[in-house]
Amino acid sequence: MFWKELKFFIIFFVIGFFLFLIAQTVNAQSSVDFYIERDFDALGRTKIEAVFVKNSSNLYFYIEKNWWESQLQIKQNEILKSLDQLSIEFQNKIYPTLTSIFGYERNPGIDSDSKITILFHPVKGAEVGYLRTADGYEKIQITSSNEREMFYISTELLGDPKLKTAVAHEFLHLITFNQKNINFGVEDDVWLNEARADFSATILGYNDKGETEILKSRIRDFAESPSDSITEWRGLKYDYASVSLFIHYLTDHYGIKILADSLKSKYTGIESINFALEKNGYKERFADIFTDWTIATVLNDCSIGKKYCYLNNNLKDIKIYPNVNFLPVSGSASLSVIHSTKNWAGNWQKFIGGNGDLTLEFYSYNEPKFVVPYILESKEGKYSVNWLNFNNSTKGDVEIANFGDKYKSLIIIPSLQAKISDFNGSDIAYPFNYSVNVGPNSDTHNQYLIQQLLEQIESLKKQIAELQNNISGGLTISCSSINNNLYLGIKNNNEVKCLQNFLKSQGSSIYPEGLITGNFGVLTYRAVIRFQEKYASEILFPLGLNKGTGYVGLSTRNKINQILSS
């Protein structure tokens, strides 16, 4: 009897196991219709059919049916193998690490299932994935809901090392949906939502290993457009770049709990960051940290101040190059420039040259909430950080004695810090103006006048000699060296003629117009820039510049005279 019962059990078990395998095979080949986002789909569709290809302990994998069936068997096998690896990575690293910091996704989800669905389909452009918050609601609320805890990844990433980074990014969006939208009934600002998700790669160590190069690409993009607002979100690569570097700085100095606590609160955006800072005992607020970040981005040196640097080893070499304003090194000079900026965007303006007392005045037209730190670099290469004094709500100024003698550069970093919420799409740009006046101070004024007269006398002597040469029939301009600094605006000057003659001799790629007028106009200015950039390693780089200035100073004259004497 026992044997019969055992035999019956074995047969029943075998049949049951066989039926289970059949069921699994059927499930693995079954297809499901999913709603997707038209704006992300490569073909602009709103609904697709997808094949269930794999599951793991906490994931379901679906792939668009047409795409999957168009792949060769060997390619399908490679994809399934990569999904095996992703499943292990998600279970052992991504899920436990991110949930331990930020909390959990809704589990079980709206479908009463603890597993998360990942749907792969062709995605347009450079997008790698997205989340539809609509899926977190019942169809009776949103008819296009898939009623699952799920997100979407581009088929381009199947088999790519960046796949795990994209999955971690979108999974953090899923956590955010639960922690903000479900728990508090609020939706976080897009810029902060994306910042947290982007930072997941650093949390998981993917940027340290150099496997995905996500942070490297952010650094490159930031170098292209460092003045992109961190709060304005248009979905561009520059948006990710600026907010990524800011969040790295924030967590460097204030810890990951600021990001976590800002998420686990009823507040959103800037207000949530301020809440988290106060909760963790910091006196600084978002505006203070943003300003310090703009300073650190141009200095990146902890010896100048502990807040004026990145602590992450991957960011230790970051330094942006400010826009350079060149002041004549002799005589008096004035400069007035109008720019515009958006809220929470860095702007870096550097002033070099000049000789004497420098006065800088800053004006904002419609928005009074500008903050303007400035950095002075001494002749010895030491930096000091200060802030502009605002006499009223829209005007600030600073006076610096002996600029050019005691200090060799000034950097101002104006930023507009007025808006703290309602960051939806493109933001408004507000104008600001700065003017600089520099000239001899009272102690050296007489000496300056004497020197100016001597230079005029010397110039007259050269003009007389030139006239004598022309009278005798010699009309060709030539010179063996250029001994004075030359700059835009000089007129009827023989050394400018020498300069133009020299630039013309360098070929049409330098001075295509080839005009010899003695007037230092725009065409000559552009030709000088081309010459400086051609010999940048000798003229610009030693001065910390990477673009030509159009100003013929000592280093430019030295190179010209070297060529003339050869």
Structural features, described:
The protein has 566 residues and is of the alpha+beta class. The chain folds into five domains: 30-186, 2-Layer Sandwich (Zincin-like); 188-319, no CATH class; 323-439, Jelly Rolls, CATH 2.60.120.380; 444-472; 476-565, Muramoyl-pentapeptide Carboxypeptidase, domain 1 (Orthogonal Bundle), CATH 1.10.101.10. It is 41% helix and 18% strand. The chain contains 16 helices and 18 strands. A six-stranded mixed beta sheet has the order 1-2-3-4-6-5. A five-stranded mixed beta sheet has the order 7-9-16-12-13, with no helix packed on it. A five-stranded antiparallel beta sheet has the order 8-18-10-15-14, with no helix packed on it. A hairpin with a 4-residue loop joins strand 12 and strand 13 (383-387). Helix 9 crosses helix 10 (269-279). The longest helix has 30 residues, at 73-102. It is elongated and about 90 Å long. 36% of the residues are buried.
Quick tags:
six-stranded mixed beta sheet; five-stranded mixed beta sheet; 5 domains; alpha+beta; 566 residues; Zincin-like; Jelly Rolls; 16 helices
Estimate what percentage of residues fall within beta strands.
15-25%
Q: What kind of sheet is the major sheet?
A: 6 strands, mixed
Helical content, roughly? Answer: 40-55%
Q: What oligomeric state is this?
A: single chain
* Mean pLDDT, all residues: 87
Number of domains: 5
* Secondary-structure class: alpha+beta
List the helices and strands and how they pair.
Elements: H1 2-29, E1 31-35, E2 47-55, E3 59-64, H2 65-69, H3 73-102, E4 116-121, E5 129-130, E6 150-154, H4 163-184, H5 190-203, H6 206-209, H7 214-224, H8 237-254, H9 256-263, H10 269-279, H11 286-299, E7 323-327, E8 333-341, E9 349-353, E10 356-364, E11 370-371, E12 373-378, E13 383-387, E14 389-390, E15 395-403, E16 407-412, E17 415-416, E18 430-439, H12 445-471, H13 494-505, H14 522-534, H15 536-539, H16 554-565
Parallel strand pairs: 3-4, 4-6, 7-9
Antiparallel strand pairs: 1-2, 2-3, 5-6, 8-18, 9-16, 10-15, 10-18, 11-17, 12-13, 12-16, 14-15
Helix pairs in contact: 3-4, 4-5, 5-8, 7-8, 8-9, 9-10
